[in-house]
User: What shape does this take?
Amino acid sequence: MLNYVSKRILIGILTLLAASIVVFIVLEIVPGDPARLMLGMNATEDAVQALQQQMGLDQPLLIRYFSWIGGLLVGDFGKSYTYSVPVLNLITERIAVSLPLALISLFLSTIIAIPVGLFSASRRGTMTDSGTMAIAQVGVAIPNFWFALLLVYVFAVSLRLVPAGGFPGWNAGVWAGLKSLILPSIALGLPQAAILARVTRSALLDVLGEDYIRTARAKGLTRRKVLYRHALRNALIPVLTILGLQFAFLLAGTIIIENVFYLPGLGRLVFQAITQRDLIVVEGVVMLLVATVILVNLLVDLSYALVDPRLRGRS
Amino acid sequence: MSAPTEWQANISKAFSNRSFVIGLTITALLALMAALSFVWTPYAVGSFDILGKLKPPSSAHWLGTDHFGRDILSMIMVGSRNSIAVALVSVIIGAGIGVPLGLWAAARGGLIDEALMRFNDLVFAFPALLSAVMITAVFGPGAVNAIIAIGIFNIPVFARVARGAALSLWPREYILAARASGKSSLLITIEHILPNMMNILVVQGTIQFSLGILAEAGLSYVGLGSQPPMPSWGRMLFEAQTMIGMAPHMALYPGLAIVITVLGLNLLGDGLRDVLDPKMRRERS
Assistant: This one.
């Protein structure tokens, strides 16, 4: 168990290091001179040189990389060129929108998908099963931003139940904030729920074919008990894997959904940064999202060991 | 001599599979629409008609017009080319690099295999959208950059599938026999391993193709994909957003085009898997 855990953690750290090198190469080495790219074609030589100095571009590459990484480790993401404030401040401000959005979507997706998957698996082969899975099949094909537009049209434009976009800030009250996250979370979470429901159903059917399920049934347990006590628990591994992957998708998905709903989250931040060529902000947000994806995958890997005792013995 | 009969059996099995037939029909219609758009569209996509803007569907414009008075059906037809091209090329990139990597890792094992798995971890840490964001930040937006971003994401997917399939094939008796006869790993991989995993690769290719259509639409929607004046489904939706109150049809049809296309490809993939990979069928049904 300890072996397994330490190996996964080591791999997580190495992946993060490798990812940081990729981000550094793409955003600091490939553009040639980031200062020139950020200031644009018409910048004066003096301005470019001043920014080069401010960004430490006159230093050798290795030193630049290590000072960047060292900064990240102590929470120094550099200073935004357009906003003239530390990138970390921008990120913490925006994450207060993006993180709740991703979490609510994940929650919605899970509480819909697992019961639907269970329901469908327990009625395998019936009309209800095929009907439910047909709906899920369509759900998988729906792009979340299109679904978002439809939701805006029905609930914001026609029925006027919720705002069509914008975010009042958490200072305006938790309910006001949550209200403007309702449609975005549904738009983001429902198509994911369709995927997760299909995975849950097929994982359950997989497990239901195993010998120990037959044994459990033979010893007199009801179908229901077998489903909940034995099958669901064992079907959790593929479900957890997909959940971990989905969290990465949801985080990246917030980038698009925030643009549909004009939410001031990390996604909007990164797009504004791209148009303003504020590479330091892009770098910071990308690193943060990548680190989150790696961390979530690590947690999923570790939770396998909790769900499946057989994995604990493996190194 | 047994190959043709097996194929015949597979084909007749395929055409009695509902998912396959529906999926194939939708996909064929999509391809036909894209091909037709090269020679004919109801209206020229570049022709603006400000007086006839935001018109709902009618006999003159089956799917209505947009805020510049352009015919939406014509734009969807031409836009399909863009979706297909981006998704197809990114599948080719993903399979072209990923499959050899996976085969190599399976044939060599050990350190190379471990390195491949860690490379997969690394690429999976960058969701396609995030790579697109980085690429666009440096090189600017465009269809080619969208292809690169989606293609990069496809590499570890194909590598993983190819590796898994190859690992299950290597211990087979006919492979052992080929080895005993002195064939090199490379030759065995080309002559025996690769042909025997084509089924799985075709199925995965269909899935990645449909994901590519979705990803391309998402990237063009946020302005990171193909640029005007080339119509693209994602950007049509972006343009529809501000008009949603006045002209909901502008948002409805391009979105439906995406849903139907992705649904068709997914059904085709499911059908192909049922026919070509009986093991998966048993697990799923």
Q: What stands out?
A: Residues 64-278 of chain B form a domain with the MetI-like fold fold (CATH 1.10.3720.10). DSSP finds twelve helices and no strands in chain B.
